[in-house]
Input
Amino acid sequence: MTDARPQFGEYATPEEQDRRAGRDLVTPPPAGVVAAATEPAIAAPQAGAAAEVADRGRNRPIGRAVTLALLAYGLVNVIMTVVAYGDVPRLMNQSMKLIGVEGEFTNFEAGKTWGMIASIVLILGWTVTAALSVLQLRRRRSTWWIPLVGAVVTTIAASLCLSVPMFADPAFIAYMDTVRGG
Output
C-alpha cells in the first residue's frame, strides 16, 4: 500500500521552506513592482537593437549613392556592349590585331551565335545584379560591392562566350600553331 500522507515540505510554501532551512526571509515585492522593474530592462535592449538596425541603413547614404551610380554605369556599359556584340566580326578583327594575329576573322556563324549568347549573358547578369542590389537596399544592408562582383562575374562569362568563336577561327588557330612552334 502507498502512504497517502504528504512528504516532508511537499505542501510548504517557499517562505516556510526558507524559515525551516534557516535562511533569511526575503519578502518578495508585490507583483506590479516586479513587472515594472523588469520591463524596462527587457524592453531597452530590444528598442536599442531595433534602433540600431534602422540606423544601420540610414547611416549609409554614400553607399547607396555608389550602388546606384554603379548600376547606372553598368546599364550604360551593357547597352553599349550589346550593340558592339551585334557586329562580332569587327570586334574579333580588332581583338586579333591587338594580339598580333595576321588574317581576318571568318567564323561568322559561330560569331553571330556566340555574340547573341554573350549579349543575353550581359543582360541577365545586369538584371540579377540590379535585383540583388535593390533587395539589399530595401533590407538596409551594405550594397556597394554587389555591382562590382556582378560586373566581374558577368564580364568573365561574356568573355568566355566570345572566346568560343575566336578559338575556332582558322586565322586564330594558325596563329596559335606558330606561337606553339608548330
In short: Residues 108-138 form the longest helix (31 residues). Residues 39-44 have pLDDT under 50 and may be disordered.
